[in-house]
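Weekly modeling sync, notes
Attendees: AB, CL, MP (scribe)

Item 1: holo prediction request
CL wants a bound-state model with FHN before deciding which constructs to order. AB pointed out that an apo prediction alone won't tell us much about the pocket. Agreed to run with the ligand included and paste results into these notes for async review.

Input as submitted:
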Amino acid sequence: MVMTRRVAIGLPVLLLADSLGGAETADQRNARMRWWREARFGMFVHWGLYSGLAGTWEGKPVGDRGGMEWIQDRVKADTETYAKRAIPLFQPKPGFAREWARLAKEAGCRYVVVTSKHHDGFALHDSKVSDFDAGSVLGRDLIREIVDAVRAEGLRIGFYHSVIDWHHDQYEYARSKQLPHPLKGRPYPNGARDHAKYVEYLHAQVNELVSGYGPVDILWWDYSAQDFQGQEAWRAFDLMDRVRAKHPAIVMNNRLFRIPEAGFTGMGTDAVSARLDPKYGDFITPEQHIPATGMPGVDWETCMTMNTTWGYSEHDHAWKSDETLIRNLIDIASKGGNYLLNIGPKSDGSAPAESVKAMQAIGAWMKVNGEAVYATAAGPFEKLDWGRCTQKQLRNGKSRLYLHVFDWPKDGRLVVPLANGAGVRARLMASGKSLPVQATAGQISIAVGVQAPDRIASVIALDLDGPPSVAR
Ligand code: FHN
């Protein structure tokens, strides 16, 4: 039975579109994706039982680099042993979710994506189909607390949901050589498994998440392998149809699949290409890196940690500088992508002090310069020696360029390879101060003075009477 796919194109008009190949029109898709494209910046949150272990097992550090949300796999613990050690340490404090939501808002994030379930299989919502969940173990619905807090700050909410599951006793981990599992290579502890039963459970839990918490804006699936993916592994198309039936405007990533048509060229986190058939998802997910030339023609989002782990580790102090994080955000926006920046809260839900400081620094920069990131498109220049450029189309055919200057010119003159710069108006975003512009053949020179307003990135807005023409 092919489920039809209802596409909301503005209430109360609903269009039924055949889900075969996702017959959503380009206009409908652009309308659905608009908020996400304009958002540009989201906060990722990896939080679960692993957060209480904090990268430590049997009193010793498991390591000081790499994902400690994988600790169960790194120590090859079965789910019973893992649960016995981790559950007593996982102690969410009252109000943790409001702290996250306020931090995301202060940072200038427009959406929050939280791990409803990571690979360890522990669900943060009150699940009626599992006893390995916050409701059963803590008597709390942590997803409810998070959704309410995020919405109270006027932000969009997304669920990261792992299809990989190291807890469920029907998950057939032997069917993939590429997907991780703590028991990999060992026989199933209790004899033969029936993966279809796990997939039923997966669908049932996702159904709980898209039925009980109001509007859900993003479903961030994670992750598939070339040797086990899609409809075979997860009944992926049925899962996407189930979600869209409840939330026609939802935005979903591409990670139920691992094929070239879904933007994957291999198993590496950088093995991605600018190719996405919408039936496999709405955006491509480069991880821990920024594609050198962006991903022209497709929607994409770089997800990144602030140190080297997604889940909290008390041993990982390799924090990226505020300069790196802010320039990453600018670099990604200048290439037309979104930045999903991760925090890994501790067992009680408090964010590491370094993460709070970084998010506050980003927020201070966004307070002054957010206009140059939100609702912008990739800049027109292939490369600028001194920084990056984003752009917006204005009314009446006019356009605006935002010049993000990392390296302030020592002679106080900023040269821009703009061929149609005659009459362009320049102003400093920080102060609104107009700046003198000289237009010569193939470039403009802006008298910016010798003092950069911001040590990390100073923005100059350029207003043109038409589209920019780049000098060759
Ligand atoms: O294995 C996960 C990892 O723990 C983390 O959740 C990242 C975030 O994108 N996704 C997978 C690795 O690609």
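Recorded for review: The CA atoms of residues 159 and 340 lie 13 Å apart.
Action items: CL to compare against the apo run; MP to circulate these notes.
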